[in-house]
Write a structure and sequence with these properties.
Order of helices and strands: EEHHHEHEEEEEEHHHH
Structural class: alpha+beta
CATH architecture of the largest domain: Sandwich
Radius of gyration: 19 Å
Helix content: 25-40%
Largest sheet: 4 strands, antiparallel
CATH superfamily of the largest domain: Immunoglobulins
Number of strands: 9
Shape: globular
CATH topology of the largest domain: Immunoglobulin-like
Low-confidence stretches: 2-61
Distance between the termini: 23 Å
Number of helices: 8
Number of domains: 2
Strand content: 15-25%
Mean pLDDT: 76
Length: 274
């Protein structure tokens, strides 16, 4: 695996971005959204440029599709529910991801965060989702915490998901997600988990929903779709946990598999060729 990089931070003396320190900024973590990084960097040298970038990112003024399914046990059709979820994740201005052999989807997606802002993770053992591109697919996936690898998992060339198998992730923390491809090139992104208070509150609300859905006689697939809807419509906009639910069905129907593949493609359109 590659050596552990310096994590970007705001500090009392400045911000370190690619070895350049910019002073007079307060102390808190720098958003791992590349769009946010571009705005902050541009603002230091050219406020008009920063304004233009911000306006480009904020082109989506409409609200995303509303998933008005009524109550569990109603007349919803499973594939209609899946189509609604697909439409939600595809909403927004066309965009893509950085060119490379691996496109990360969860728990970090460049496209989703450029549209919705920074998205935190509820699960303490998240599902890692990606798409391979080109001739060098991912061979290993790891999560690290400031130099300490918490997991380092081998994946097959045809894999696009794997469940994190390390110790439970702690609330309110930043972690690095690292992919190593078969050419030994790495892709590194960062993500953060919910605070303990928010995580507990979401867990309580989710348990109530699950009890209601199970009591309605729902199938495993229907339960997963309701879980996904719960996460993405939550006030905290837990879009990665919504994807986790959507891709975690043990025996998905062919129709759901098709929607999953469409979703992978739509979230991983390269912004440019290498």
């Amino acid at each position: 695996m590659p050596s552990e990089p310096q994590r970007y931070r705001w500090t009392a003396i400045g911000i370190l971005v690619s070895g350049i320190t910019i002073p007079t900024l307060p102390m808190f973590y720098l958003s791992h959204s590349l769009a946010d990084t571009a705005v902050f960097a541009a603002a230091q040298t050219d406020p008009l440029s920063a304004q233009a970038i911000t306006q480009t990112i904020a082109q989506n003024t409409d609200t995303p599709p509303d998933l008005n399914w009524g109550e569990p046990g109603g007349s919803q059709l499973v594939m209609d529910m899946a189509d609604d979820l697909l439409e939600f994740y595809q909403w927004g201005e066309p965009g893509g991801s950085r060119a490379g052999s691996v496109c990360t989807i969860a728990p970090y997606s460049e496209r989703l965060e450029s549209i919705h802002g920074v998205i935190e993770v509820w699960s303490d053992r998240p599902l890692m989702i990606w798409q391979n591109r080109g001739e060098n697919p991912a061979s290993r996936v790891a999560i690290s915490d400031l130099g300490t690898y918490l997991s380092n998992q081998t994946v097959e060339p045809t894999d696009t998901t794997i469940r994190y198998d390390g110790e439970p992730l702690q609330p309110g923390q930043f972690y690095d997600l690292i992919f190593l491809d078969t050419a030994n090139d790495d892709t590194l992104v960062s993500f953060s988990t919910l605070s303990a208070t928010d995580r507990d509150a979401v867990s309580t609300e989710l348990a109530q929903l699950e009890a209601q859905v199970i009591a309605s006689g729902a199938t495993e697939e229907e339960l997963a779709l309701w879980r996904s809807r719960f996460f993405i419509q939550h006030d905290l906009r837990l879009l990665y946990d919504g994807l986790d639910a959507l891709f975690s069905v043990e025996n998905p129907s062919p129709e759901l598999v098709q929607r999953q593949q469409e979703l992978l493609m739509s979230l991983c359109v390269p912004t440019q060729k290498e």
